Amino acid sequence: MSLTRKEFVVKSDQAEMRVDLFLASIFPDLSRRKVRQILDVGGCYVNNKRMHIASRLVHLGDKVRVEFSLEGLKKSRQKTFELTAQEILYDAHNVIAINKPPGLPSQATRDQDIMHAEVCVREWLKKSGRANEKLNLLHRLDKETSGILLFSSNNNTATWITDQFRQRSLSKTYWAICRGLPKTKKFEQECYLSEIDKKTGMVRPVQCGGKSSRTTFEERAAYRDSDLSWIQCYPETGRSHQIRVHLEMLGLPILGDKRYGHSIKIKVRDDVAAIAANHHLLHARSLEFCPAPNVPAIKIEAPPPPNFEAILKLLQTS
């Protein structure tokens, strides 16, 4: 799929134009519908920030970057998920928390026909009469990881929450179903991790040149007959693929993980393996943070997805 990628600087005769009209002026061969699609899928950046709202104005000197695939725009985006009240975990103090299902990207990808969480929240806001609210994605979950995903509808709130992530003052808890059994009830892993390799899509522990990472773990249950365990994970840092890599290093790869743990040979029973084939079993279970200044801290919890619950039920009844 060929990708068009162009960058522009707003000139004086283009200043104070609506962003959709600006795009239409620089891409005269594109229809207004195609222009709106580019904005919807997250293919327009103004000063390195994604621009979704067509009525926003561009100003003199703004740097506009546009990325889109005509093939992708020709396809109807896959409607794999639509937010309902059940998936809205929190909506107050300009913070929106959703329970992201596995398989849904957190934000736009190069495959512009694929639905992602940002679009889902924007469409939910439109249906709620809040189409003009500015939406900021505050962190990311891997595509196959389910659970709590935070957004803000206010720039000051985005800065407030992002600072808590940066200062590691939030409390994050993940659940994982892993192949293998831990040696102790509580354990930890600490190392330096590389960036995501663009060719393999993987992160690796490194001796130097990486970023520090640390996760502590606690066994919730051990299913010895199946050689599987239910692990509670507390990431103290927030590196890409951190929990997945740490558990692989400990000999406890996450069940269903398609990238990590293939060298660890642990047989998984057929009924469990069939369910785990759809996505890996890592779930962002809870998040405790302060939503706004002078507001008490809150704790949000997300119920696990059906496949996660189905495997636990199989293991607990066998």
* Name of the CATH homologous superfamily of the largest domain: Pseudouridine synthase
Mean pLDDT: 89
* Structural shape: elongated
Provide the low-confidence segments as ranges.
none
Number of helices: 8
Q: What is the helical fraction, as a range of percent?
A: 10-25%
| Whole-number tally of structural domains | 3
Give the beta-strand count: 15
CA(first)-CA(last) distance: 47 Å
CATH fold group of the largest domain:
Pseudouridine synthase
What is the helix/strand order? EHHEEEHEEHEEHEEEEEHHEEH
Percentage beta strand: 25-35%
In the CATH hierarchy, the architecture of the largest domain is: 2-Layer Sandwich
Secondary-structure map with pairings?
Blueprint: E1 4-9, H1 19-26, H2 32-40, E2 44-46, E3 49-50, E4 63-68, H3 70-74, E5 88-92, E6 95-100, H4 117-127, E7 136-137, E8 146-152, H5 155-167, E9 171-179, E10 186-193, E11 205-206, E12 211-223, E13 228-235, H6 242-249, H7 270-276, E14 282-289, E15 298-301, H8 306-317
Parallel strand pairs: 8-14
Antiparallel strand pairs: 1-4, 2-3, 2-4, 5-6, 6-8, 7-8, 9-13, 9-14, 10-11, 10-12, 12-13, 14-15
Helix pairs in contact: 1-2, 7-8
